[in-house]
Amino acid sequence: MSNMNKAVVIGAGIAGLITARMLAEYYKEVYIVERDELPTAPANRQGTPQSFHPHRVLPRGHMILERYFPGYTKDLLDHGAHSTDTEEMVVVNPFGRVVNRPLIASASSSRALLEWVLRRRVQNIPHVHFLTNTEVTGLMSAEDRQTITGIYTKSRSENKLEGMLAADMVIDTAGRSSKVIQWLNSLGFMVPDPEVLKVSLGYSTRYYKIPPQLEKEWRSVVSEAQPAKGISTGMLLRIEDNIAGTLLFSAGGEHYPSAKPYEFQEELKNLNALEIAKIVSHLEPLQGPRGYRTPESIRQHFENMEDWPSGLLVLGDAFCSFDPIYGQGMTVVAIEAETVANCLEEQRRSPQPYFERRVLYRMQEAIEPAWWLSSIADLRWKGVEHVGAAPLKGVTFAQKYIDLFTKKATELAAYGNSKFYLTQFLMNSLVLPPSKFFNAEILTVILNDHGSPEEEQLRAELGVQGPERFQQRIDELIPSFDAAFDERLKDVLMSVEQQ
User: Fold this and answer.
1) Which of 10, 214, 14, 233 is nearest to 109 (CA)?
2) Residue 317: pLDDT above 80?
3) With pLDDT > 90 as the criterion, what percentage of the chain qualifies?
4) Among the listed ranges 27-41, 177-191, 448-462, which one has the minimum average pLDDT value?
5) Contact 145, 47 (CB under 8 A)
6) pLDDT digits (tens, 9 = 90+) for 333-384
7) Kind and range of the H or E element at 457?
8) 392 phi-psi bin (left φ>0, alpha ψ -120 to 50, beta other)
9) Where in 305-422 does DSSP place strands (E)?
């Protein structure tokens, strides 16, 4: 770690680009190795099968990206992305509707445009190099196999030329197609079984051109699901060049949103937000709907390996893959990269053994809220199952707490008090720690709901009556997540508390 000359990043997607940008501050040379030929303009790539569908950067991710790519939002806007500064978003849930504006000014764009903007920034860093149309075929290791010393490569051109690339650090960001477990097994390492959410999720997306008469009065709409009734999530979001994307989502495997135009349009009429179907009827379709399905969300636990090799880390979907509907993926990658940077900074000041295992452990702490929150939400769908060495903590209590909180927040927002709703939004955006949401002070407020069904269900799950026992009971039921809190977010927390 004292001689940090060369780092290799596997994969040139958004995870790889953020990682390479971070590593450029610590290594003399950084190489990004990518299977695809990279487009010279924004375009979906074969190596990113989800790129057709809408992507979001949550506020926490946006703040990290602005630190690594200052002004990237302006780059997006200069290339047709839409500013969210003044745009309202309507969120419809079973209890009503909330109209809000973004807390942090950003831009809405396609995944392809965001990746292109970030890639151009990284390509301008003199000591970052791209090796494209190149497949990674394995990990190089020292004789004792305890240290990764680089990668084996093979060109995807006609000559299939094989090669080697030595490195002091290899970071795999190849996503769900990563072969890192296979490579570790071939070196004799035993990888523990992952934590799995058998989610059987599916979604379908269709894009439309927004006509001029609707551009100025446009409002994006999010229609929240009702899993118990089989009602899908629906979204109508603007991206760049006055194009809007409509998405339908469900989990559990009983029903997948249709990719047939007529059926897709009919399913829009079954959402909680009836206006989505109405608005879409005035838009010009650009192509038929396209579907995406995946059976599982997977969280690896490499930190439990006593013999994890030095010189190797894993980030992004290869480390932990999420249900895409919650928009956490890119933000979690940014959090992971920031965690690695913090650890590199500490290691530079005070070198310690077992650096990589410490990083893996710290990354697990950092992503824990995102995994738990998305799992809590997905487990509402019939057929979704969590499989792991330990059960998820607090599932039923958290679901009932969130139901009652959402009802209360929606009611208050209708009277102009959006602080409650903002608290929930910022937790889901991975800015606020869950302790700012699940606590005795809030519980005391939401339980004053005059015997509603949601209140009675939560009281039964809580199991205590006196408010003096609330915090103790919450601490028993809900993980603390304290290690995931970033001290640099204090200013955001203070601004919320002052509203």
Assistant:
1) 14
2) yes
3) 79
4) 448-462
5) no
6) 999 999 999 999 999 999 999 999 999 999 999 999 999 999 999 999 999 9
7) helix 453-462
8) beta
9) 312-314, 385-387
Q: What's the pLDDT band for 496 if we cut at 50, 70, 90? A: very low
The bridge status of strand 128-131 relative to strand 29-33 is parallel
- The residues, any chain, with a CB within 8 Å of residue 368's CB and separated by 6 or more, are 479, 481, 483, 484
Q: Say what the alpha-carbon torsion angle 165, 175, 365, 310 is, to the nearest 10 degrees.
A: -20
Here the tokens at position 152 are: 């084996």
> What is the C-alpha separation between 170 and 188, in angstroms, rounded?
18
Q: What does the alpha-carbon distance between residue 253 and residue 403 come to, in Å, rounded to a whole number?
A: 23
- Integer Cα distance of 58 and 332 in angstroms: 9
What is the pLDDT, as a whole number, of residue 100?
85
Separation of alpha carbons 433 and 489, rounded Å: 10
Q: Are 227 and 252 in contact (CB under 8 A)?
A: yes
- How is residue 480 written in tokens? 């603390």
Round to whole Å and give the CA distance between 153 and 139: 9
Average pLDDT over residues 298-304: 97
- The rounded distance, in Å, linking the Cα atoms of 98 and 424 is 12
Q: What is the pLDDT of residues 169-204, one digit of tens each?
A: 999 999 999 999 999 999 999 999 999 999 999 999
- Is residue 175 within 8 A of residue 13, CB to CB? The reply is yes
Written in H, E and C, the secondary structure of 363-397 is: HHHHHHHHHHHHHHHHCCCCCCEEECCCCCCCHHH
Backbone angles phi, psi at 396, to 5 degrees: -65, -45
**Global pTM value:** 0.94
Distances (CA, A) of 427 to 85, 137, 206: 21, 40, 29
Task: Give every CB contact of residue 158 below 8 A, 6+ residues apart in sequence.
Answer: none
Choose among 159, 155, 175: nearest CA to 47.
175
Angle at 127 between CA 124 and CA 128, to 5 degrees: 65
The answer to whether residues 367 and 316 touch, using CB atoms and an 8 Å cutoff, is no
